Fold this protein.
Amino acid sequence: MSAAFTLFLHDLRLQLRLSTDLIAPLAFFVLATLMVPLGVGPEPNLLARLAPGMLWITALLATLLALDRLFQRDFEDGTLDLMLLSGLPAYEVALAKAVAHWLVTGLPLLLVVPVLAVMLRLPGAEMVVLLAGLVPGTMIFSLLGTFSAAVTLGARRASVLMPVITLPLMIPALIFGSSVAGTQHPAAAFYMLGAIFAAALPLAPLGAGLALRAAAE
């Protein structure tokens, strides 16, 4: 576990050093959300109804922006081979990458959600519920995205193939997550999000680890 934690810290510092991995998803999230009032009009009730779904969709798409380079740099310079030959389990490598990805992309998105929700006229109580749903939701996006990035590693046109694999996997989380806010009984949607997260937490790193082993061979 100490080796996995060291890898996590190294990858986190690397992603923070590359400003595009931090700024691009956040900028896309903000700009795409701000375009909603321009397209549908400034009517407050309409914006409040659209806000949960739009914030979830833009958060999902923003998560995809930094995934194509998640393993690519390590794969090209041979670092991935050294990681796997060091005896570190492949699923721990994948889990460390997923956690670092969430801290660099998912967490900044959560920090700006309240500001964007206010701009979209979302009521305060629904904003809290929306934010509570996005916490496990963005974690699910990072876990499933890490799996897709590992599966497409080394493939031709991986940047095109990865969204095709990733988006269908994320649809259940998107459906239940966007229905959390704006409903009188959000508990069922929360339970489903929790179940998806509980399944993705062990299975996504295990699947990504197997894919990493296959790509290294």
